[in-house]
Structures
1.
Amino acid sequence: MPPSRSYETSNLVFFTYKRRKVVFVRPATHEDALNLARKTFSALTDVPPEKIAIWARLANRREEWVTPEAWLTVTNGVKHFTVEVLEDKVKEEEIKVKIEKEEDDDVKMPFHMLPPSGSSARGTVWKPARKPVIYLYSPTAINAKVRLSLIPQWKFSAVYPQPTEGSFKEGKSAQMVEWDVVVNPSGTISTKGISTEVAYLFWEAETEPSDNLPDSPPASRSSSPLPINNTKAPYARASFIPGTTRCSPIDSVVLSAQEVPPYLEKTLLALGLHTEARTSFITYWLPSLLKHEHLALRFIPQADFEAAAPLDIDPKPDVVTRVFMIFEGIPADRLPDWEEACERSLADVGFWKGVVGVEDARQSDKSLFRVLEWGGMEV
């Protein structure tokens, strides 16, 4: 009788295709993994290998596409893989692999996958940051300088009103814009040198190609506005990098498209957005939200958003509230992977106040110089 063979748990991996999950002994190569998937899942038998993508679940539960070249590195730590058929083939040589050290308890994740410039590995274009708008409120008329900077992963695609220097498209540069304004007690904003009176300052940004961008070290400064004379280039915090950060089951909620508007109404109210801001937020995003049957969404902590888009205002406001949402569609066959996020959607929306970091008592104090900003992006 031949001796029985046993495998350590660390040598077993889970492959999921649609709703079927199978345990394999860890494939030695990417080719072995493809052959196992095609042999095990009958629907893949006649699918060309180049049309099959294998995704690895990282320590933070985000999934990234694995290339043949990265396979040996990936298999040292990853236990969960998802198999998909690509609708539009993306050239594997365009996928860039960046090695990073990540730890999740006792499991080391020695890699991080980045999508090709301007697109995700699934072949979809990264969406820009849409309609961040900045409201300024003061009990008395005051002169203020408002400067907004962007990290290298972003560049301005549009700003309004006309900035102090530069164009409607880029401002002084692609990554910094400055307005010289008068904040009126009525809630309107007047731009010096221009007769325009507006309700808010508007900006949009698009992601820059990842080629040749500098690495972004963890930010150590607080979320409060930087001194107006600070000229150091901003860097993204690891938890929010435009063009890379996605939603995940551990930090998001999952809702049906019909559930999203009432959920946002309650959440935005809890985060301090007034009636006009809530209405504008929801109606602006509603067409994009309704394109999906189910969505994952989350709000970015102010400290992380501030690191990506530092807002410098002189004189310094008494309270600043910056609300930025990211969201993405979730296919119905992937909902079982998002069970934790589905359950979280039933919790009291007040938990988002702690996530974002809002100051309840001061947001509505009309005797203070207050700033409110909202925006978002589909990822």
2.
Amino acid sequence: VALAFITIFFNAALIHAANERMSGGDPGLGSAIRGAMLRVHRILPWAIVSATVSVILRTIEERAGWLGRLVAGIIGVAWSLVTFLVIPVLVIEDVGVGQAVKRSGAMFKKTWGENMAAQVGFGLLGFLLMIPGLALAGFGFSQGGSTGAILIAAGVAWVLIVVLVLSALNGIFQTALYRYASGMGTTAFPDAVMASAFAPKGGRGGRGFTQMPRGIAG
């Protein structure tokens, strides 16, 4: 629960800062942390729920063999998709966990294409970007000695940087997607950019994600 709380807390701080920027403000580290602190009473229950779900899914995987792994995998994917926007809802709307899950689920129905594309895209991008770091660490392990230790440390640092960067990008995307689904808009991006990024795509009436709006750091 402690690890889940820390992770969610800093995600909430990032989302608070991204939302402030998209609202035309000029957020800083201090304002981001303060924003998350104001939602601790929402973040802690969500951390408990998230940790509990993770434990339940892990238990199913370990005790039910391949069928358990399959079921847990399906449930895990569905849970991550439906709850993708829970943290933005908690931070921006200041509602309870139950209401946040309902709101996130309702928004998922509207943005399922962007939601799925983002999760698959970020996962694939993360895997590809981690390969050099993992390869470097593996090579260092095979070399041994002080040189190997340096290479391992460099590989681990590479992976950590990739994780942090992707986490930040994911938080920014969550905020933009939440604002789009809520009809809030953003002053950080031109309306035309937001429209093209989240516009319905052709083909069987589906939706799709084209590109991440640019300008958040501007």
3.
Amino acid sequence: MHSMRLPLALLAALICAAAGVVAAPQDDGFKFKSGVELVNVTATVSDDNGHFVTGLTKDDFNIFDDGEQQEIAQFSNERVPVSLGILLDTSGSMTPEKMSSAKSAIDRFIYDLLGKDDELFFMQFASVPDLLQGWTFDRRAISRAAGQVSAAGGTALYDAIAQALPIAADGRNQKKAVLVITDGNDTNSRTSVTQLRNLIRESEVMVYALGVDGNDVQTYTPQPRQPSGPRFPIPIPRGGRGRWPGFPFSPAPQIGFPPIGGGSWGRAGNEHVNENALRAVTDDTGGRTEIVRGFGDLSNATQRLADELSQQYYIGYNNGGKKDGKWHAIKVDVRNRRYTVRARKGYVAS
């Protein structure tokens, strides 16, 4: 009789344990899974008018890896926090007015438009990139970092993005992105566009660029007149962004002597941001490039970016254990053919 008590007690304990497992509360909240075989894709869906489409479900999406349809292992249509790096162009073409507008737009972006769980870092770039504030949830730290920058030097745009990618990849949130704010073209980078695109292909970081067109730059146009007296050779500064001595505006007038006497102020038409170069960097990542007419429109552009980050879809699928070090193309579409999907175009399986 005594010998049967132990098995019965053991059986009862096992039954209770099993009941406890069944009765354990279920957490229905979305959680990202991690693993080398899970490919994470953030998708942005828009309609014919460019408005973001929300409320779609897992069944609305199809995802393909090298042309083969994949089973969606994870899906979320809720906002998830983002780890975001802000990169600000502080090259010599950034006038005090431009810098003031950029700082105001950044403050509104970080204080009013982003979520409290979004973490940030801040980097300036002129002739070289400079990380002024590492990862933080403190918006005041980001604002202070942006407030201390000043404009000088060339534009190492590609170097800045290349340096920011591994920092962004170390962010604690699953969604990772970099935002670049610039008014010009790369003039100082050691990193080429091809090298940068290869780095981007090995990363899950989305890259966004807000390019501010140079039409709001003021230049001086002299009135035609016959010069009096002999003309002396005046040295012209080298480089596309040199400044004339004694003249606080940029770019320099394209003439052989400084303007003297009557003239008029106008808008520069030769300082356009290189949209194609920016798109070559952003479009493979699932991010995008937006060109605005002037720094006065920058705040509205950051509003649109914040809306996009809040209305994206997360999709995860198992790639079958591929570790061949090769590029694999990703395609995401939805059943409604009137909608457009933007997502990263592939990954390197390593």
